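User: Reviewer 2 asked us to show a designed sequence for the structure in our supplementary figure. I'm pasting the structure tokens here. Could you produce the per-position amino acids so we can include them in the response letter?
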């Protein structure tokens, strides 16, 4: 018998025990291979570290938009499914000329006015040539660029976009909830 396969199996089992029985992903999905600056912080959000293996709703936001009250529904969605692993990432953007002039004002709208507890980034470009690499990948996978603020992408545990929804789709819309539940049921 060749000793190498037995050693490899032993090492793999040891690593599983060492990491609490969790299987670690060999590679982070392309979608998540980015870091974005965190809102009201000097820190960054390492998307792989924070979201790999988790279902995710990514939404571009704006502080002064008719859809801004959707923050309340997004927070409710996050709270409803958080214990099942759902993450929400808000990405403020002024691409549609409705974001606050400063990050502090953006943070006040999110955290004070709407009580947001899910992850929020500093304002980013989400459309066109200047779009952040995260959004370029969302657009490539879905075939759809955000047409306005509060455009929503649902991403499964493998980092694949499984659905996208217009700004008109509220966070409690049955079709959006169905996509979120599908993402929750996906295998890492």
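Assistant: Here is a per-position design you can include in the supplement:
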């Amino acid at each position: 018998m060749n000793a190498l396969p037995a050693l490899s199996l032993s090492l793999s089992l040891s690593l599983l025990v060492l990491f609490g029985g969790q299987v670690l992903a060999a590679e982070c999905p392309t979608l998540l291979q980015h870091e974005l600056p965190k809102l009201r912080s000097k820190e960054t959000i390492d998307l792989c570290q924070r979201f790999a293996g988790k279902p995710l709703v990514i939404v571009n936001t704006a502080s002064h938009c008719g859809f801004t009250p959707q923050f309340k529904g997004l927070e409710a969605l996050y709270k409803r499914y958080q214990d099942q692993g759902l993450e929400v990432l808000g990405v403020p953007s002024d691409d549609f000329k409705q974001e606050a002039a400063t990050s502090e004002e953006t943070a006040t709208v999110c955290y004070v006015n709407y009580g947001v507890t899910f992850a929020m980034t500093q304002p980013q470009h989400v459309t066109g040539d200047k779009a952040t690499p995260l959004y370029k990948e969302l657009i490539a996978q879905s075939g759809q660029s955000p047409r306005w603020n509060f455009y929503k992408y649902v991403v499964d545990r493998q980092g694949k976009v499984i659905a996208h929804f217009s700004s008109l789709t509220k966070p409690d819309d049955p079709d959006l909830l169905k996509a979120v539940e599908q993402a929750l049921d996906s295998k890492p």
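For the response letter, you might also mention the following. The first strand starts at residue 35 and ends at 37. Residues 3-26 have pLDDT under 50 and may be disordered.
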